[in-house]
Each structure stands twice: as structure tokens, then as C-alpha cells.
Amino acid sequence: MSFTPSTNPIFLYYRPKSSEGAKSSKEHIKVDNAGTPAGSAQHNDERVEKSGMKENSRPRKSKGRLKMLPSMPLDILFEIFGRLTPPDLLHLSRTTKPLRCILMHRSAVFVWKDALANVPDLPAAPEGMSQPKFASLMYDAFCHGCLVPGVRTAYFTLHIRLCNKCLKKHFEPLDRKFHLRYGAGTEECLARDKVYKMGDQYCCLIKEREAIVEVLQKLDREERAKFRQEETARVQARTANAEELNKWLNKQSESRGRELASIREERQEAIEAKLEELGWKEEIDALPDFNHWEASAWCIGMFEDHPHVKNAKPLTERIWANIKDDMIAYMEEMKQFRLKYERHMLVKGRQVLALQAYNKHQRANPISISSTNFWPGGADFLVWDRVKAIIEQPTSDALTENDFSGALSEVYPWMQDWCHTRIHQLMYTDPLYAKDLVTAGDRALQLATAVFMCTNTDGRHTHKFSYEDVKDSSELMWYPEYLHHRCNRTRMLRYEEYYKHEDIVLGKGYYCNTVQRPWSAEYLQPAEKARKIVTSLLKICGLSVATTTAEYMDQCDVRFLCVKCNYGRCDGEREVTAWTWRDAISHSFVKHFGSASLEWEVLSYADTDKLRLSERPLKEREDQAKAWQCARCHDLPSEPWNMTKQEVIDHLDIQHAAIPEDVEEIVDFVRAPDAPPALAKPVRCKPKAAMLYSVSGRI
């Protein structure tokens, strides 16, 4: 008896060969009508003549040449199959049913073992798993539940590969509900694996859980303990085997990744060599070294990311002939980008030179950076027509700071015109402020009733301090804080312009995407409620609303008492809170919704003097406040945020190699014009009865 395939394509069975033996091969040769054997040279020539085909035309592929493969002796087949790799053996077992019957027979198990042994360092198959199933688990990429292809995640502890849709059908999380329903002892008997798509928690197979629970219910107490001990050992063995399989798979992935990277690198070098032969060597050397985000911002593709370059196939002459035109077009595009990028960097370099010249001019003329003056910033200087023409001149000649000396000699008339325009732009946003400007002139900016607030909701994100710091400094602003408020001069870069902008990037204390911008009052809004409260406080003090400035109120240091919060007027017995005039306005907003009809008392001279003696000196509070800036970094790239006086001295020592004993105010550091003055904090006291009186002449 020998194994031969039947004529039925579906079934295989054993049948003896006929006693007459196999027919001669000559008897099976087909003969045409002319008596010429089919397949002979003469027969083929006659076919060509009849059909009119050319002799050099490509012949059709003949089919079915391997249909007699199953009829070969098994020892020869097994010798051939044993030299294949597991993926090849899996594919072969799915070609025809006769081959599948041969490979899936128990007698062919050594073929699978030999194929798996051909894989270097592959761990052994888990206990209880057949060799074909193990090969399928390791190399197939389809779901074991619905057979959908492209499933890359295998759960080796559970011996299964599932797609995301089949996870909940086959997996059950080992969560609190599972413990309450089945107990902790059941979990010990179940193989488990962490499933990311199910909350990154450990899960078991529902079928295994059902089988384990069914067995446990049939056993008595002693048998259960023994069964759990055996199953726990089995689970530990499966877990250890799964760890080995995962390690091997990771090594294979890394090895394959290195192999593909090597092929891509060789292909890239080959393409570069081909382009150099065509005269593109200089452009190849000048290709930008951008990261992914920077290349995306400039809307370009990197050379190594080009589809023709990153393809992991060796470059051949035929492939080069197909991609040659595309690569030349890409190099033409990159040449245009190079010229554009070089122009961009040239302009940025000229801007830095202009800012350095402007900074030196300001330090040589300290009035321009004093906190009491309102002058253009670096971003405004760069958009000045005189400076802009120098920066954007079409030549590629290198510039120096001296090239901007002509513009700096005419900077003061431009500054005055710029300042006048911006002040009118700000004050004419409200009729009352416009009236003050007409009545008092530029002095209207300094009035105590000139109160502004910032409407920029992103203002708190421009520096790295707490919300309370921002709230205290930007809730309500008087002169000169509102003119130099950071939102007037800074903005946040959008994602698409992060790598290609030409603005001044700010430094320490700011977020990395904060830059200077030309001065704008779009976020400043007159604080009408605060203006009314200030008016009422001035009337209580007997001061003129039309002439009293915010600086005068700070110097007076009047302390106010809220009658509503103190439940009556002060009598020298009850403890009350004394507020400065700025804190009194903030208190009205926080506690009384900005009401201007509150009743206030003014602390007497004697009680005010007592409070001052118990408070820290104003100079000490001023030095410890973040109210100082580096004059050497003013309007330059990487300008830091406000610092304390000691911090700015340390900054000068570290960044500018300045001797701490030699630093001078105004020349080396200045008070930040956007920082409010350091005033006394609210104090609890027991003052005597206060009276309404005029504070003129108190200073």
C-alpha cells in the first residue's frame, strides 16, 4: 500500500496502484490533429504561425506544474519541507487540501519541529500547544476570533491573537467585580495578560474561566486546593514562557529595524551618489538638518523622508531610471527653499544687529529706558521705515551696527511722533479719557482716575509665575504700568509660525513661544467701575479729580477703612483693616462687586504714622519685589522676565561678567516700568475715630 492522491480534489484516501503499473509517460502526451505531439518545437512553431504571434512575445505562464507534488514520496517531501521556515510552511499548508492533509498529519510533526528549529534562538513551544498552532501564533497576523488580517498584537500568556473588536468577546478583566463573583482563588488558576485597550488591566480568557469554574464546582475542598496548586504552577510556566517569547520578539523587531535602516541608508547614499553625478553635490551638502516639526512648519519634506529615499529596497538601475525625474524635481524645490531660508536667516541676523545698536543707544541715553518714559520697544524699532529699509535691502552683504547709526541719529523725532500716536490711540477709546486728554494734555495719563485693565485671557500664560502674581500686577493698572503692560508688547506664537517667525524671542521667565510684538492697546480697556471708586476716594480726601495723579496718591500713603466690613465706624476699641488706596479699590471689587457707593473712613495722621513704624521699609519691599530688569538685555533676544534686585545683580554677574560692586542703576539695570509700586499691605489695627478732612500738604 502506498499513499497516492485521488482524482477527487476534495478528499484524500489510500488506494493500491493498478497491477498493470503506471502508464507510460508517452501515453499521456497529447497529440494534435496533425499528429504532432503537443509541446514539441514543431507544434509550437505551427501555433505561432496560426495565431499570428511574434516569436519573441512573452509566453503565458503554465499553471498546475506543482499539482503532482503530493504524489512524491513522503520522505522526499518531508526532507524538503523540513528545510523551510515556519511562515513558508504555514503558507504551504494553505495552498491545497492534499498538502494540508500531509502537513497536518501527526506523522509530519517532526517537519514542524525542524522548521521551528531553523529559526535562531526561538524559545520552545508552550506546554500543551501543538507545533503548527505555535507557528501560527508567532508568525500569523490575523485575528483568531474573526480572522481579520493585520493584527500585530499577540497575547502569548493567553496563546491568542485578537483584534480590538474581539477583545470584549473573548477577554474578561480581573477587576473588583471578578473578585466578588469568583473569589481570589479563581484568579490564581487563570493565565492573565495586560490588555491596553481594556483599561491597561489584566484580563483572562472567558473560555478558560468558564472551564476552571466548572471544574472547581465539582471538586471538594482538598481537591480544590490541589487543583489550584497545579493550575498555579501551570500559569507560572506559561507566564515565564510568554516573557521569553516577548523578549525574542523584541529582539527580532530590533534586528529587523536595524536591517531595514541599513538598507535605507545604503539606498540614500546610492541616490546621493547618482545626484552628485548629475551636478547636485552642492545642494546635497546644503540640505537642511531639520526635525520633523520644523520641516512641517516650512512645508518641506526632508531628503531621508522622501518616499523614494526611505523605501527599504536596494537601489538598482531600473529603479533609479523610474525615480530619477522625481528626485531632480525634489532637488529643484529644495534649492528654492535654500535660497528662501538663507534670506530668512540673513534678515534675522540683521535684526539682531539693529537691536544691539538700539540697546547701546538707549543705555547711552538712559532717559529712553527710564520707567517714567514711554518709548518704542525693540519690535517697534524694527518696523520703523528707516530701519526696515536697511534690514530688507536686497543685497546679501554683511552689515554692522554702524550701518544703523544714521537711523539712530534721527530716532528722537520718530520716538515723539510714535509716542503721540499711541497715546491718542489709547485715550480715545473712551469719551471720559479723551476729555481728560483734551483738558489736561499728556498729564491726563498720570491721573489717578486713569485706570485700565487687561482683557487678554491668555495673559497669564506669558510667564512662569502663579496666577496670584499675575492677578496682582495686571488686574488694575495706573500710569505707567498700563503703558508698559506685557500684553501690549508680547504675543504667543502660533504652531505654524514657531520655527519660521522673525520676532524677538523672550528669555528666562517666559514660555518658549512668547515673542515681542509692536506696541498695541488692543487688550487695554478703561476700568469704569474702578474710575468711579477712585473718584469717591479722592472726594473723601478732598482732592481734585482733575489734577490728582496716581504718583501723588502713592506718596500721600492714605489709609482707608471700609465702614461696611467693619460694621460701623472705628471707635478705638474694635480691630479693623486699614487699606492703601490701591488695595481699597481691589477690596471693593473682591468683596463688594466694585460698588462705588461704599462708605469709607480715612485713618488719622497719628494712627497712620504708627502703622508705618510697624511696617517694613518700602525700599526693602521694593528690592525684594520682582520689579527689576536688566538694561543690557533690554529689547534684545532672550530678554528675561522681571527679577528681584539681587536676582538681576546675579544675572549681570553670570551672563554679562559684570562686577556686582560696579553695576549702576539705569546703566546696567532699571526698574520694570510695568511693575506696580511697592506699597504697604493691609494691616489690622485699632484706630481712634477718624474724620473727613483734606490731605493736601501731608507729604
What layout of secondary structure does this protein have?
Blueprint: H1 41-51, H2 74-81, H3 86-92, H4 97-103, H5 109-117, H6 131-139, E1 154-155, E2 160-161, H7 167-170, E3 171-173, H8 176-182, H9 184-188, E4 193-195, E5 201-205, H10 206-218, H11 221-277, H12 281-285, H13 292-297, H14 317-364, H15 378-382, H16 385-391, H17 405-409, H18 411-427, H19 431-440, E6 452-454, H20 467-474, H21 486-489, E7 490-492, E8 514-516, E9 524-526, H22 528-541, H23 550-556, E10 560-562, E11 576-578, H24 581-592, E12 600-602, H25 605-614, H26 618-624, E13 628-630, H27 645-655, E14 669-671, E15 683-685
Antiparallel strand pairs: 1-2, 3-5, 4-5, 6-9, 7-8, 10-12, 11-15, 13-14
Helix pairs in contact: 22-24
Q: Could you please describe the fold and organization of this structure?
A:
This protein has 699 residues and is mainly alpha-helical. Among the domains are: 69-249, no CATH class; 419-685, no CATH class. Helix content is 45%, strand content 6%. The strands form seven sheets. Strands 3-5-4 form a three-stranded antiparallel sheet.
Structure summary:
This protein is flat. The strands form 7 sheets. Strands 3-5-4 form a 3-stranded antiparallel β-sheet.
